[in-house]
Amino acid sequence: MSLNKDINQRKFRSEHQKAMINLIYSYNWLMENTRKHLDQYDLTPQQFNILRILRGAGEPLSTLQIRQRMLDKMSDTSRIVDRLVKKELVQKVVCSADRRLVDVTISDKGRELLTILDTHESEWDALLKNLDQSEATQLNGLLDKLRNSQD
Amino acid sequence: MSLNKDINQRKFRSEHQKAMINLIYSYNWLMENTRKHLDQYDLTPQQFNILRILRGAGEPLSTLQIRQRMLDKMSDTSRIVDRLVKKELVQKVVCSADRRLVDVTISDKGRELLTILDTHESEWDALLKNLDQSEATQLNGLLDKLRNSQD
DNA sequence: TTTAATTTTATGTTGAACCATTTAATATAT
DNA sequence: ATATATTAAATGGTTCAACATAAAATTAAA
């Protein structure tokens, strides 16, 4: 991977600065590989994310509830949902109890697509195969600690 | 940070899967904090990135050379450069030796802006203050290993 | 030398983040 | 009961990633 060659060539002010760059590289690497799995199904990572959230919930969720469960806090949920509606992977119905809300449900077509994608789950997990179990745990610990700032 | 609460509440298939989610969270956290520093100067992370690359180069760079030094391989360099031109932070001149190329140079105004931003460098580094030196090194090692896949 | 291939930049499109504002519905206060 | 505040969703604007294609200049080939 040329990214890696790149990052090793560069000079850094500190290990902390290198860690920032490294985090960005690693995120980009992860996204690139994620897209490889999803592209053939004409699905973006965020669309996939929302589909999984809806299936996991097992009941209709409002746009706000979806957003709160998404990885990107600030995601433009209503427009992503609209794209999923256009692809007929989800349905949108105004909530009768509170008509400000929209009940979003995964459709049969959406469920079928996820079933197909479940097949990829193991290759998907294998993305991080270079780390063994304990290294993955270690990484999780460091990232948690990293983010745990007071602000 | 509510992100962290979130990630600890969730159930994960494996430490590897958690590490993926954790990487995404951490990247988003980093970007959010980066933007906080740049917003007051009406600069995006990518624009800042290009300005630093140009100053660091010490000579005019072509659009392609800039892109090759950027963190995001696929970045839309020519349009970002155009926005910097509009802000008068860089200049664009067609290269006389090879008229396909465009020589991009940081302007005095751009240089002044970076000088101001240099002031923030220490707070900037302090973003990762929760990790000590050896933890940062450890994180770098794990991220390098993570990405070092064959494909 | 003229044609073909390659390189570099520009442009177009879609998806999405982020920010602000608007609209509709509900809850609260007077 | 009406006016105000709050909440949820939709919408508009800008920036950028990712992908494709076009246009211009250069290089290679015939």
TrEMBL record, chains A, B:
Coiled coil: none annotated. PROSITE patterns: HTH_MARR_2 (PS50995). SUPFAM superfamilies: Winged helix' DNA-binding domain (SSF46785). Residues 13-148 form the HTH marR-type domain. InterPro entries: HTH_MarR-typ, MarR/SlyA-like, WH-like_DNA-bd_sf, WH_DNA-bd_sf. One of its GO terms (molecular function) is DNA-binding transcription factor activity. GO terms for biological process: response to stress. This is Transcriptional regulator.
